[in-house]
Amino acid sequence: MNGITGSVLLVDDEINTLKVLSAILKDNGYDVATARTAEEGLDRSSRDVFDVIITDYRLPGIDGLMFLSELRKKSPGVPVVMLTAFGTIEMAVEAMKTGAFNYISKPVNPDELLTVTREAVSKHRLLVENISLKSQLRDRYNFKNIIGKSDVMQEVFNLIETVARSNSSVLIAGESGTGKELVARAVHYESPRSDKSFIPIDCTAISEQLLESELFGHEKGAFTGAYERKSGQIEYANGGTIFLDEVGELPLSVQKKFLRFLQEREFLRVGGGSRVKVDVRIIAATNRDLDAEIQRGNFREDLFFRLNVVRITVPPLRERKDDIPILAAHFLAKYAAANTKVITSIDSDVIEAFLRYDWPGNVRELENAVERAVVLCPSGMITMPFLPRAIRELRVTRTDGGEELNLVETEKRLLLRALEKTAWNQTRAADVLGISRKQLRTKMKHHGLLPEE
């Protein structure tokens, strides 16, 4: 085998045993360190990181079981394999009770040694990857990393921080594209449940016939195609959080069963007779006016009260325009890196256009606009030509009752007026307009007014 497949610490007081086992493992690509006593093994494991520790049961001084107990305190995630020359069941059981991953009888069979070592290394690597992934998720969805300096977003942040400590149900309200799922994840990853599952369910993406089974699971034979028992997402989320996105789309038949679950914290699988009890937190989100849906008979009022224990309203982007420049800068850095492009800034005209626009698609639309601009822009600075037409040619209704003004055409007329007034002297025209000559030339280029050189 080529390369290192894992790191192993061998602990045995017999020199020949260390030599033989080291040779077997090294020949199969493992990086091997050795120790003759438990004390030496503890010292070595405190200084270096190993994927697996293989130790003899009988050691001078501290024996293998005491060594194992100490390792569990200092390196709880590292698998420990016990070697024993006696092969008694009692000894093996005691080792496993103390926390051993497995045991191997002496004399050691090379194939058994390699199989057990490979399994132990795989377990440790998986554990390390899971810890790393959870850390990344916490960093990614920590509410402090939700971008926003506006007062309304600061209020949202404060509410997230307070609500996260409780187990109460949370209802997140807001238009599409405002980042409701990001807020839900922030609540979860700031809560005591952060090391458990966060399972999102899009209530609009699953048919009514399948939604109940998706939530609660089903028993074998419950319906055509139910060939085996299947656990639902609520069961998988035990100890963690279920996020119901667009909860206003829940069919009334499912609403009734979900309400009973919220009241009793237990449920029946579809076609089942035994109740399943779970501990999950419920976070729901909606872009609908649930009060209006209740009046129309589309949403149960009692379910609404159960979900709406704490409400977090995520404001639309048009109500938090102070955040637009920093959001745009964030998305620029994100997509420039993703597309390996050297694009370092956004033209002030673009920011002005962003601030004028009402963003019906909210933060998601802004992100898409910046990503599009990054893809189209060769390098340097994002300028107006790279924006979507709806933003470039924004039309604003006049408050005096007159016709709509096209801001792009209005800007072009102002440029022409200044240039004609100054006999097309760009420096003087820039002074008249109160902008720099560089800005003037950029605008002239955009409107096709720059003379060919």
Summary tags:
4 domains; 453 residues; Rossmann fold; Helicase, Ruva Protein, domain 3; five-stranded parallel sheet; 16% strand; flat; 18 strands; alpha/beta
Give a brief outline of the structure.
By secondary structure, the chain is α/β, with parallel strands linked by helices. Helices cover 47% and strands 16% of the residues.
Q: Rg to the nearest angstrom?
A: 32 Å
Percent of residues in β-strands: 15-25%
Q: State mean pLDDT (0 to 100 scale).
A: 86
Overall structural domain count: 4
Ranges with pLDDT <50 over ≥5 residues?
Answer: 396-405
Largest sheet: 5 strands, parallel
Question: What does this protein structure show overall?
Answer:
The protein folds into four domains: 129 residues, Response regulator (Rossmann fold), CATH 3.40.50; 174 residues, P-loop containing nucleotide triphosphate hydrolases (Rossmann fold, 3-Layer(aba) Sandwich), CATH 3.40.50; 76 residues, Helicase, Ruva Protein, domain 3; 57 residues, Homeodomain-like (Arc Repressor Mutant, subunit A, Orthogonal Bundle), CATH 1.10.10.60. It is flat, with a radius of gyration of 32 Å. 30% of the residues are buried. The termini are far apart. α6 packs across α7. The protein is built from 19 helices and 18 strands. With 453 residues, it is an alpha/beta fold. Strands 2-1-3-4-5 form a five-stranded parallel β-sheet, with helices on both faces.
